């Protein structure tokens, strides 16, 4: 088995960090996903989107990895959204309770718009 089935990259857009997943999210993805999350957190990320638009397969180990990220996001008082999931995986994420802790959007654009609303609300409440 090869452990490079998943390519993970990070980028920033309008103060929002995006973690792009390309490939299968399985047990072999843990180091790449958690490493990307830790990297953006060290950069000061408060708003994070996990973009899974190019991931066709997520198994139970992959879901467990994402639950671990959600747990850390809550500890760090960050805001997380997940975009690009197929309708099938959107349903699964809701069934396992991930939607309680991370907003789920069909597209990256929808997730960015929601994060921008959260950013604006945070600015307004700080004034």
Can you walk through the features of this model?
With 127 residues, the protein is an alpha/beta fold. 35% of the residues are buried. The model has no long low-confidence stretch (mean pLDDT 92). This is Anti-sigma factor antagonist. Pfam families: STAS.
Q: Strand portion, in percent?
A: 25-35%
CATH superfamily: STAS domain
Structural class: alpha/beta
Helix content: 40-55%
Q: Total number of β-strand segments?
A: 5
CATH class: Alpha Beta
Give the strand order of the largest sheet, numbering strands 1, 2, ... along the chain: 1-2-3-4-5
Number of helices: 4
User: What is the name of the CATH architecture?
Assistant: 2-Layer Sandwich
Low-confidence stretches: none
Number of domains: 1
What profile does the largest beta sheet have? 5 strands, mixed
Shape: globular
Give the key terms.
127 residues; alpha/beta; Transcription Regulator spoIIAA; 5-stranded mixed sheet; 4 helices; 5 strands; STAS_dom; Anti-sigma factor antagonist; STAS_dom_sf; Anti-sigma_ant
Compile the SSE list and pairings:
Elements (H helix, E strand, L loop, with lengths): L5 E8 L2 E8 L6 H13 L4 E8 L5 H16 L3 E5 L3 H9 L7 E3 L2 H19 L1
Helix pairs in contact: 1-2
